[in-house]
Amino acid sequence: GSGSGIIISNDGYIVTNQHVIDSATEISVILNTGDEYVAKLVGQDAKSDLAVLKIDKTDLPAATLGISENVRVGELAVAIGNPLGQELAGTVTAGVISAVNRTMTVDQSEYNLLQTDAAINPGNSGGALVNQYGEVIGINTIKLSDESVEGIGFAIATDIARPIIEDLIKNGYVTGRPWLGVSITQTRNGLSVDSVEKGSGAEKAGLESGDLIVKADGQVVNTFEALNKVKDAKKPGEKIKLTVIRRGEMVEIDVTLGESIPTE
User: Helices in the chain by DSSP H: which ranges?
Assistant: First the structure.
């Protein structure tokens, strides 16, 4: 696979999309000079679709991360990346910011994104979306692709990406994420618990395989997104009240959330 990246420091840190390097056994970075380097994966986060790489190179020109909160609809937006691979490396396309704070759900994860009509194609993922001052305001990530769709692309806003990038560099993962500790399947009637992880707050609270989660903190949750919205508003150590149907009876269970730490 191939994609694009943004040099964020002169000592070799590079940010890209997590889906660009997902499951890679070896990662290489090709600079605009043509020089190629083996990259180390510093940290990755599937939830935000961000990853940080490091190459053994100093004195690199680093991009300036702008403040995406200041972005307004109608402003110039320039996408830079490698659509369709190295043959078209360094392609620049221009458009405008079509919308801000656009919510999209992809693979059970919810993203808050900038929308642009600047052309984004396969291979642009992880590349920069910059403003008229050359500041990076977003990291290109997805586009809508259909015969009836044109000019609808999305980027992760830098204000959202910045603390995640800093966490990945410092810790290798994103800290402070609440962890429930269950594997669930979405059904017509609710969220069915497939398994409960040992040592998790769910196990300690008595949640069982076969339980059907129907509410969280009193709110109806019949989708992954609905449950995650309630859970992600909390911090590790806080409680979430789950209402479940177990063998035909309604049961309320208080679960103390743990911290989500990725395993190797």
Answer: 18-21, 158-171, 201-205, 224-231
45 is catalytic: no
- Given the residues 45, 49, 167, 211, select the one marked as catalytic: 49
Buried b (16+ CB within 10 A) or exposed e, 140-167: bbbbeeeeeeeebbbbbbbbbbeebbeb
Going along the chain, which residue ranges are E strands?
6-7, 13-16, 27-30, 36-45, 50-54, 76-81, 91-106, 109-116, 128-130, 136-143, 153-157, 178-179, 182-186, 191-196, 212-216, 219-220, 239-246, 249-256, 258-259
- Over residues 246-257, the pLDDT tens digits come to 999 999 999 999
Three-state secondary structure call for residue 228 = helix
CB atoms within 10 A of CB 31: 15
**56 carries an active-site annotation:** no
User: 124-166: per-residue pLDDT in tens?
Assistant: 999 999 999 999 999 999 887 777 777 899 999 999 999 999 9
Selecting among 48, 125, 200, 211, the annotated active-site residue is 125
